[in-house]
Amino acid sequence: MTALSGLRAVLFDRDDTIAYTDQAVYRDAARWAASRYGLDASHVGHVLAAVWADHTSPDRESSWWHLRTLSEEEAFWSEYGRELTRRLELPADAAPEWLARFPYEAYMKPVSGARDVLSALRTRGLKIGVLSNTLPSIDRTLVAVGLADLIDVAIATCAVGIHKPEPGAYHHAAATLGVEPREILFIDDKAENVAAARAVGMQARLIDLSGQDGDAIHSLAEVLDIVDARWEAVGQ
Predict the structure, then answer these.
(1) End-to-end CA distance of the chain
(2) What is the pLDDT of residue 234?
(3) CATH class label, 9-18+111-234
(4) Is the separation of the CB atoms in 141 and 165 below 8 Å?
(5) What are the strands of the beta sheet with 153-156, ordered from one edge?
(6) CA–CA distance from 113 to each of 16, 30, 136, 179, 188 (Å)?
(7) For the segment 95-113, what is each residue's pLDDT rounded down to a tens digit?
(8) Which parts of the chain register pLDDT below 50?
(9) Every domain of the chain and the residues it spans
(10) Nearest to 47 by CA among 12, 82, 72, 84
């Protein structure tokens, strides 16, 4: 690997990088709703997937991509809950109970070894940041996966109004971390985001936790290998 120079921070994507969506929780939610409201679990699962899909496309006015504040996100989840219960023909007052039992962050889990890797990076004197195309409530999700205390800066692009791979998202992250783009190692699971980071001067690596992409690193532990290779190259 090419040695890194002037490294002061590591900036991670969140989803499929340091955390992931646990599909088993969707099944748990479907079974819970089936038991609680007398529904068919398979039907609930299909409706859950459909309603979420309708709220994730950037082209849709109802999408989370257009949220900017926590209050807007709160209204988004209220509308999401109403739509979910409407399609399942449940009373409207079922929505708050459902969302309290299975909030957004309940579906997330930390990637294996994430806490150890972030801790090791901090002991090496590096700042840790997260830059994710996600809703404004990123802090709550990082608390839920047990990583918040190891992260110096967490940026939800919704709150900034600029999403990856737009250059402004990376410049905002660098400024918030208090370092230059060239002093950042960026880790993301999407090739277009990695390419955009390199275009603004960041040193970046693609991560593929499935192990299928031969050009990517396949575990968070490999981030430590990259950093340590840099220390060896500069004789520290």
Answers:
(1) 17
(2) 59
(3) alpha beta
(4) no
(5) 153-156, 127-132, 9-12, 184-188, 203-206
(6) 13, 29, 25, 26, 16
(7) 999 999 999 999 999 999 9
(8) 1-3
(9) 9-18+111-234, 23-107
(10) 84
